[in-house]
Amino acid sequence: MSGFEIDLDEIEGLPRPMRQYQAALLASNTLPSPDTGASTATTRAAIDRITALTGSFATDLDQSADGLDAVVATYRSTDGQMNLWFEQFQAAVIFE
Amino acid sequence: MSVSLEVDGSPAGCRAASRDIRTLAGWVGASSDMLAASMRTACGAWSGSSSDAFTDFAKERIHRADELHEELLLFAAAMEGLGLGLADVKAEMRRARNIAAGHGIPVGANLPEVGEITLEPGQEGPLDHAVGVANRAREHETRLQSAWQESLARVSKLVWDPAEISALVASTGKSLSGPLDKLSNLPGLSDVDPSHLAATAKNATGLLQSAFSTVTKGIDDALPGGPRVGPIPLIMLMNPHLMQHVMVTKAVKTASPPAARKIDAAIKGYGRGIQKVGESYCKAPSKVVEFAFDKAKAPGDVGESAGKSSKHIGVMHSATCKFVEHDGALKYTDLLVEATDAK
């Protein structure tokens, strides 16, 4: 086991708020681009950049939720069998 | 030369956008707090290298999100300031117009300067006053736009993933680090040539197949006697992330981010296909035999060892998928499982 322990009941509850906040982020991520005069086009580009950055955060929350789901599903499917090699695979692959 | 009284820009639009950006900033901050709380919960309920990986992942995102939160607040404040400033400039231009008009000076979109029109007695002073007000308002607007450009420039430099920058300037190094060192003997990986990445991306199946073999062998070594579907460990079918094969993706990312994105997408598509087989197997083992193993009818020990009942199990020799390039990305189109009778 190499120090591996997991309380699946605790961990399986984590993805839900991640997805809720991801949805809230995406819902708030449609921003108007105001007329700022001579800089209006550059303002539009900045707004687009902000929405892209926030979208990336939302994507990472989704990835995190998926990763935790996968961890729980995988650990359940192993019926408690776990070892360092597989642990490291999880570490390397899911939360890359 | 006459002085324009027109001022472009919408103060109300700036205020509205500022409010929306603040709302978004609030959600980014709240999401960061949520992620931090999740990390604390995970730390108390999960230990090991996968837990450490999650913690590292979460910490990194928390820092990025907090920085983004701060930048959004600054940007919102700057936009609000621009809106207020534009409102002031517009008010000053109206004031200049009223000063002139109040003394009978004809004013259109522009304010005439002294000497441009014939003035009645007593109009020169008010016009000079009005022109001064308008010119100062224009300077005010110029300074506002200059400050706004600084805010825009700051936003243009923001990135979510610092690696996006480093990857763009990275060398074509192929070294792997951390846990991936253990997987560095993946067949085919050392042969990835950055100059041939486009071809590699179009022919990802070969890389996937080698990964498939390597992962299978690794699981065999690590979990001998674990549940299987034919020669494929059930864990692998249920966890397509194993197939996502980060070692290839990460190595190629270093060399060419665009190609890596294509391969990444293709691998994920492949993973979904593999997952379908696994899920089908768990729900109805006999059906997946028919689906995935065609006419294979040989009995096997997979169902029993997986805690499921299954009568017909074949041997899966390989699982491949097809990719097509669509809108610049590789799309997974089909999963082909080749199997023969287990006898």
Architecture blueprint of SSEs:
The complex is a heterodimer of chains A (96) and B (343).
Chain A: E1 5-6, H1 8-11, H2 15-27, H3 40-77, H4 84-93
Helix pairs in contact in A: 2-3
Chain B: E1 3-4, H1 11-45, E2 46-47, H2 49-101, E3 110-111, H3 124-156, H4 162-169, H5 197-202, H6 204-222, E4 228-229, E5 232-233, H7 234-238, H8 241-244, H9 246-255, H10 257-283, H11 285-292, H12 302-305, E6 314-326, E7 329-341
Antiparallel strand pairs in B: 1-3, 4-5, 6-7
3D structure, described in words:
- The complex is a heterodimer of chains A (96) and B (343).
- Chain A has 96 residues and is mainly alpha-helical.
- Chain A has a domain at 38-82.
- Helices cover 68% and strands 2% of the residues of chain A.
- Chain A has four helices and one strand; from the N terminus they run E-H-H-H-H.
- The longest helix of chain A is centred in the middle third of the chain and has 38 residues, at 40-77.
- The radius of gyration of chain A is 20 Å and the shape is rod-shaped.
- With 343 residues, chain B is mainly alpha-helical.
- Chain B has two domains: 3-160, Ferritin, CATH 1.20.1260; 167-341, no CATH class.
- Chain B contains twelve helices and seven strands.
- In chain B, a hairpin with a 2-residue loop joins strand 6 (314-326) and strand 7.
- Chain B is rod-shaped, with a radius of gyration of 33 Å.
- The relative contact order of chain B is 0.08.
- Classes of the chains: A mainly alpha (96), B mainly alpha (343).
- Strand 1 of chain A pairs antiparallel with strand 2 of chain B.
